[in-house]
């Protein structure tokens, strides 16, 4: 293990940095996607309700690896069929889209549950004061809902971080992909994957501790 760290440590840290970058980018876009579809689901418009439900069920029903293949290989192939020959997605772009779509479906449920946890009287009171539905949601409901959502969002960040390993199948140079490369070059699978596993474990355990600490603070603040 020590020899692997000494020789390939900088490459592994670089791959870990790319893993964290992909996770952060995906989570940012997933928050936007999740917020849009969560608001569709909590509203009273049946068409929007149906759109939100279909998106969440459809994306959650497709394995992430299939989604990644579809975006990385399928979408460019489909665009070429309509005459655009030079279109292609990088592994980072395809990976971010796939993870954001996948995470966004779960984030939509987290946000929906957070909004529905706020007493309905809060919305009614703000509407009675003359605020529109949008302003009531933005200024009154969401600030209260976010407090209950934070632990779940951090947990979803952890899940998304682990899911980045699946994107090694499309060639994104994240930590698992780098582990495959080093293992193939050195023929030291045991040591290589032990180092990779420890790196994942350190990051994920740290984030788990943060999530528990935030959850305790949120619970004390209620």
Structural overview:
The chain has 222 residues and is mainly alpha-helical. The protein has a single domain (2-221), classed as Orthogonal Bundle (MetI-like fold). It is 84% helix and 0% strand. The chain is flat and about 70 Å long.
Give a brief rundown of this model.
The longest helix is centred in the first third of the chain and has 41 residues. The chain is built from eight helices and no strands.
User: How many discrete structural domains?
Assistant: 1
Outline type: flat
What is the strand tally?
Answer: 0
The proportion of residues in beta strands is under 5%
Percent helix range: over 70%
Mean model confidence by pLDDT: 88
Query: Which structural class fits the helix and strand makeup?
Result: mainly alpha
- CATH architecture label name: Orthogonal Bundle
What is CATH's topology name? MetI-like fold
Describe the main β-sheet briefly. Answer: none
CATH class: Mainly Alpha
Query: How are helices and strands ordered from N to C?
Result: HHHHHHHH
Give the low-confidence spans.
none
- Tally of alpha and pi helices: 8
Radius of gyration: 21 Å
Tell me the distance between the termini. 47 Å
């Amino acid at each position: 293990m020590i020899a692997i760290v000494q020789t390939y440590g900088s490459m592994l840290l670089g791959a870990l940095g790319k893993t964290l970058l992909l996770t952060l980018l995906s989570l940012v876009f997933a928050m936007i996607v999740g917020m849009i579809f969560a608001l569709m689901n909590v509203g009273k418009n049946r068409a929007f309700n149906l759109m939100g439900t279909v998106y969440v069920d459809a994306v959650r029903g497709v394995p992430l690896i299939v989604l990644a293949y579809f975006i990385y290989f399928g979408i460019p192939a489909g665009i070429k069929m309509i005459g655009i020959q030079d279109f292609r997605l990088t592994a980072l772009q395809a990976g971010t889209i796939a993870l954001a779509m996948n995470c966004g479906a779960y984030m939509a449920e987290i946000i929906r549950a957070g909004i529905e946890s706020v007493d309905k009287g809060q919305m009614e009171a703000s509407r009675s004061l003359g605020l529109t539905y949008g302003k009531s949601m933005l200024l009154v409901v969401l600030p209260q809902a976010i407090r209950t959502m934070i632990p779940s969002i951090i947990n979803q960040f952890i899940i998304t971080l682990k899911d980045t390993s699946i994107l090694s199948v499309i060639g994104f140079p994240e930590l698992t992909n780098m582990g495959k490369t080093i293992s193939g070059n050195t023929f030291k699978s045991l040591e290589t994957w032990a180092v990779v596993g420890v790196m994942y474990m350190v990051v994920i355990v740290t984030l788990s501790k943060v999530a528990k600490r935030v959850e305790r603070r949120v619970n004390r603040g209620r």
